[in-house]
Design a protein that fits this description.
- By secondary structure, this protein is an alpha/beta fold.
- It has two domains: 90 residues, 3-Layer(aba) Sandwich (Rossmann fold), CATH 3.40.50; 177 residues, 3-Layer(aba) Sandwich (Rossmann fold), CATH 3.40.50.
- The chain has ten helices and eleven strands.
- The strands form two sheets. The chain has a six-stranded parallel beta sheet with strand order 7-6-8-9-10-11, sandwiched between helices.
- Helix 3 packs across helix 5.
- It is elongated.
């Protein structure tokens, strides 16, 4: 963009192996993991590029005051960066396209296994009745998996589920994506919900998808089906999820994300047929390094 020197602030933990690319005359790098947003404004107001992670919330007032050229987030989602109302000096937002897709897809399969095999109950029984196997468990081979969203993660879940002998169907809004994948069995959302034994959600959180999974969608699911969500908590009506599980409208669910993170609704943990992990689907040692490398390369390209 023509600047002689770029002030880059990395405000969250980052692997040192990737910092070397900023050690040249073109960049003035500051590494301050854990610094607060207020401290950024008071001490680093000349920041051109701000590199963060998804746990940091960015609001319009902060962006107006800092006025960076670019905000780069080491995450696929960008819902933690709120630029609403900004018309002038709107920064470029850079995010990862595929860095944690493998980890998230693997975790999705893991949640499916955990729910179908009832690991949650098995763990509790192992502490007192180790040989008790008198509870419901199911194989995933031969089951119908319905994948909502056919981006990077959805496509990997599609591939992995074939290995387990699952029958696959996909709902995808993009006509372009459907055209590019002629061998995939694409169906309407209603057909998927009425048919699938396992429904797994892989869509981004945006204004259109907030509470995407609501009363109508829960009503279409079969009482013996399960729901998996490793995208964002807000794409599901969480109160209806609890109600559907408690009333037996669906059999079980596995989620890696909740609404209002990092302060989840505590009643979620009282639902016996709900398996919860703490937003770790995309967070592995390997994915962390891939995502950081991807962000560094995108920032370098932006600053050319």
């Amino acid at each position: 963009m023509g600047k002689m020197r770029w002030n880059v602030l990395i405000a969250d933990e980052f692997s040192e192996s990737h910092l070397n690319k900023f050690h040249n005359k073109k960049f003035c790098l500051t590494y301050k993991p854990g610094i607060s947003n207020d401290e950024i404004l008071s001490g680093f107001g000349n920041t051109d590029v701000l590199i963060i992670k998804s746990t940091r919330k960015i609001n319009p007032d902060f962006v107006r005051k800092l006025s960076p050229d670019c905000i780069a987030t080491v995450s696929r989602g960008v819902d933690h960066i709120d630029l609403r109302g900004l018309t002038r000096n709107k920064p470029k937002v850079i995010h990862c396209e595929s860095g944690n897709a493998i980890s998230t897809a693997e975790h999705t399969i893991g949640l499916i296994m955990a729910v179908m095999k009832n690991y949650k109950l098995s763990f509790e029984l192992a502490k007192s009745e180790f040989v008790n196997s008198a509870f419901s468990r199911n194989e995933i081979s031969g089951k119908v998996i319905g994948i909502i969203g056919f981006g990077k993660v959805g496509q990997l879940v599609y591939r992995y589920s074939e290995v387990f002998g699952m029958n696959r169907m996909v709902n995808e809004l993009s006509a372009k994506v459907r055209k590019e994948n002629p061998g995939v069995y694409f169906v309407s959302l209603n057909k998927l919900l009425l048919t699938a034994d396992i429904v797994t959600i892989h869509i981004p959180l945006n204004n259109r998808n907030r509470r995407f999974f609501d009363r109508q969608q829960f009503a279409l699911m079969r009482p013996d089906s399960i729901l998996i969500n490793t995208s964002r908590g807000e794409v599901i009506n969480e109160k209806l999820l609890i109600k559907s599980l408690t009333n037996g409208n669906i059999k079980a669910a596995g989620i890696d994300v909740v609404c209002n993170e990092p302060f989840p609704e505590q009643s979620l943990f009282n639902v016996k047929n709900l398996t919860i992990t703490n937003h770790i689907a995309g967070k592995t040692t390997e994915s962390k390094l891939r995502m950081e490398k991807e962000i560094v390369n995108q920032v370098l390209a932006f600053c050319e």
